[in-house]
Write a structure and sequence with these properties.
The protein is α/β, with parallel strands linked by helices and 221 residues long. The protein has 6 helices and 9 strands, in the order E-H-E-H-E-E-H-H-E-E-E-H-E-H-E.
Amino acid sequence: MNNVLQLKKFNSPELAQEQLLTTVLSIAKQAIAERGRFVMILAGGNTPKPLYQALAKRTEDWQHWHLIYGDERYQAPDNAQRNHLMVEQAWLNAVNFPKANHHIMPFSGDIEVDSAHYGQTIKGLLPADVALLGIGEDGHTASLFSDTPKTDRIAQAIDHAPKPPAQRISLSQTTLSQSQSVFFLAHGKEKERIIQQGMADGLLPFSQIQAQQQRCIFYSD
């Protein structure tokens, strides 16, 4: 397991995104050539949206790509705040991405049942080739916060997130750390302090995510 967390700084979000895109596409091609599929864990929020929009302009072997989510707001699938809807609108609809390869988190009203179900659904796809994650201003990543209990489950129910909505489903630290490569995407001066803190002490949730081969922060101020 690679415990070295690299920081790559860029002059603009566009440059960071361009380098991350190149890196992800290279890994995807290699994974498909070697194993016949590429599995990517996706981040939500506004930061990765331009990356997804850039992917929408590509012509790739989408039938060999599988997409799963690092976390999701525990809301009905048609709720506008759901991460998977943003990804569909920014990327998947434009490329006719195979629906069977887009593994969204379920919503039945029972968060414990749904987190366990999602774990079983994606179990055969793990470990992922790439985990794309963000970094919150408090150092959280996915929906793993400083007080989130550790678990060996694939996905876990989050009932008391410190930012709304309180209920979420998140892949566990264990699951994310089994990924071959972990890439964080972060922009803005306000993130610089928390990134430096996490890299120095290794105590913040994002800095506790490991990787089997490489982990790197693509950052622009």
